[in-house]
Specification:
8 helices; mainly alpha; globular; 270 residues; 0% strand
Length: 270
């Protein structure tokens, strides 16, 4: 990777020239993807700051009752019932459509990886695209697996919001006789937050654009999560945990793919 954060020359011309815009200036060679060491503040920015933010939001939403404060207002705004639970926008467009969008994005990345595997000029894309495929799946599977063990109910199941079940906290023992619950962390939001992996993908493929990848994952996760909250399917903390889990999973996969930040040389990227 050269000092301008641009992709290798081989990806701009020849048989693979269609993959990238022709407006990029001439960069380094194919192996440049591997030549981007991590900057000294990498752990602070990618581990320390997100961890502190997660702990603060978890404290606010769970210990300080931010969950019920926000859910109470949504419930009252909807007239004392979850009026948007079955609405076309929230259920069909944002819930089902959002799930399909995430799946289609993953299939598009898979197709791009297959193309990179068969085209001679795509060698430098194979590892970053493989990372994106693995990281997004790992993030969503982590959240969906945890849902089966946490035993927390959705707001719409609770007596406080018109349901029939008592609230059981994350670290409380679930009383015998209650049906199984699998609402925590937020599975649908994780389908958006998993695309935080786009940040790390672009950190390798096009460092200048890496924050667009961050924006993509955050926007999808927030949109999917808020849609489920107004339906009564999740509390805020469910989304906070989903976002944190997805971030640290995709970060962990990134460090497995590039344990030392690549070979020495090249420009460091924060």
């Amino acid at each position: 990777m050269n000092t301008h954060g641009q992709p290798p020359r081989s990806l701009r011309g020849g048989s693979a020239g269609w993959l990238l815009p022709a407006t990029w200036a001439a960069p380094g060679e194919v192996g440049a993807f591997e030549g981007m060491p991590r900057a000294p503040g990498f752990k602070r920015r990618h581990v320390g700051v997100p961890l502190l933010l997660f702990l603060a939001l978890a404290l606010l939403t769970m210990a300080l009752q931010g969950d019920t404060w926000f859910a109470d207002r949504l419930f009252a705004w909807e007239g004392g019932r979850w009026a948007l639970r079955d609405a076309y926008l929230t259920q069909t467009v944002l819930h089902r459509g959002g799930r399909d969008l995430s799946a289609m994005l993953w299939l598009a990345v898979l197709a791009a990886w297959l193309v990179a595997c068969v085209r001679p000029g795509g060698a430098a894309w194979r590892k970053p695209l493989a990372y994106l495929l693995v990281a997004t799946v790992a993030a969503t599977l982590t959240v969906s697996t945890l849902k089966g063990f946490t035993g927390m109910d959705c707001p719409w199941d609770l007596t406080r919001y018109g349901g029939s079940l008592p609230f059981v906290g994350l670290f409380d023992a679930r009383p015998p006789g209650l049906p199984a619950a699998a609402c925590f962390p937020a599975g649908h939001a994780s389908g958006g937050y998993a695309w935080l992996a786009s940040y790390f993908f672009l950190r390798r493929a096009w460092p200048r654009a890496r924050y667009w990848g961050l924006a993509l994952g955050m926007s999808m996760g927030l949109l999917f999560g808020l849609a489920q909250q107004v339906r009564g399917a999740h509390f805020m903390s469910h989304d906070v945990w989903a976002a944190a889990l997805c971030w640290f999973v995709v970060l962990g996969v990134y460090l497995m793919f590039w344990p030392a930040g690549g070979a020495t040389g090249g420009a460091s990227v924060p």
